[in-house]
């Protein structure tokens, strides 16, 4: 029973340490374009590469939302003012929360942008069928025929 409080405390400390927010984390300054650019750069410098990429995706997402909400006769300067006003004073977590208000979420967009794996194994008599199945050109059953790792009973004759 006495281990539970220690476990909870250690989990809380770990969660706080891994969080991209800190007490004096930079906030976005939307008072002008120059201040905005400088504050976003300083915010991104304090984050990991992945969280910095999340910020870039969130900013693009929010810009698209501002453009969609703007009146058709709005100028680019009016859209920029609305964009800076919407982001003024936000930190990392508030920025991500604002971007996630409309689907797809920032994480979904990030993971969708990552490259997809391709077959990099050796191409020989035993693996040609597996490479073709992996690339989506030769499906039989679950698409793994011809690969000795998954179908040891037939080796290279399964094609």
Count, helices: 7
Strand content: under 5%
What is the 3D form?
globular
Element-level helix/strand string: HHHHHHH
Please give the radius of gyration in angstroms. Answer: 25 Å
Q: Quick one: biggest sheet?
A: none
Tell me roughly what share of residues is in helical segments.
40-55%
**Broad structural category:** mainly alpha
Query: What low-confidence regions span 5 or more consecutive residues with pLDDT below 50?
Result: 136-145, 147-159
How many structural domains does the protein architecture include?
Answer: 2
Our measurement of the CA-to-CA distance between the termini, rounded to an integer number of angstroms, reads 60 Å
Global mean pLDDT: 75
Number of strands: 0
In brief:
53% of the residues lie in helices and 0% in strands. The protein has 7 helices and no strands.
Can you walk me through this structure?
- This protein has 159 residues and is mainly α.
- It folds into two domains: 23-113, no CATH class; 118-159, no CATH class.
- Helix content is 53%, strand content 0%.
- It contains seven helices and no strands.
- The protein has helices at 3-18, 33-45, 49-69, 76-87, 92-99, 106-113, 128-134.
